[in-house]
Amino acid sequence: MELSESVQRGLQSLADPSSFDHSGFSVLVDVSFRSLLSSHSDPGVLDQPELKQIDQILLKQSHAAATTFILEAVKQNADKSTISSCLEELTLSAERIDVFYSAYQKHKKELERLLASIGRRPPVITDVSWRLQYHMKSAQVDKVNEPFYLISLNTEKDGAPEDINFTCTVEQLQDLVGKLKDAAKSMEKASQM
Known about the structure:
By secondary structure, this protein is α+β, with helices and mostly antiparallel strands. The protein has helices at about 5-15, 20-35, 55-75, 80-90, 95-115, 170-190; strands spanning about 125-135, 145-155, 160-170.
C-alpha cells in the first residue's frame, strides 16, 4: 500500500509506546473505526479518558492517519499479510498489529458497504428497443426523405426503472454501435488481465 508521508508519520507515532501506551493505542484504533462507521460526526470522539494525556495535535494526526489507513486497506481488500507487512515497515509491534487486524476484521464488512454506497453509479441498461421512422418533410424544407431511429434504453438505477429515449440518424447509430463494440472489447481485455 502506498501511503503519504503524513499518514506514515501518524502511524509511526502510533507505534511509539511513549506516545501511545497499549490501552491508548487500542482505544484510538477502536475510535477510528467507530468514527468511520458513525452516521453523524461526533465532536467528542477523541475525548476518551484513555486519550486525555496525549498531545491533542499528535492525537488528531494519529487519528487521521489511522482512518486513512483503514479506508485504504478496505478499498484494496487487504489481507492480514498485506496489513502486517505495511504496519511492520512503520515499526508497529506484532501485538499492536494484532489489535489493529482484529478490529479490521470485525468492521471490514460494514466499511465495505459504506464505501460501496459512496459515489455515483450510472444506470444499468436492462433492455433496448428501437423503431425506424422516416422523415418526409419538415417545416423548413418540403422534402427531407431521411430515415432516423427512435431508440429507447430501459435502465435501472438503485432498483428504480428509468427509460432513456433519443433519436439518431443512420450514421449516428453506426457510430454508437462501433463505440459500444470498442467498449465491449476493452472490457473483455481488462477482465482477462
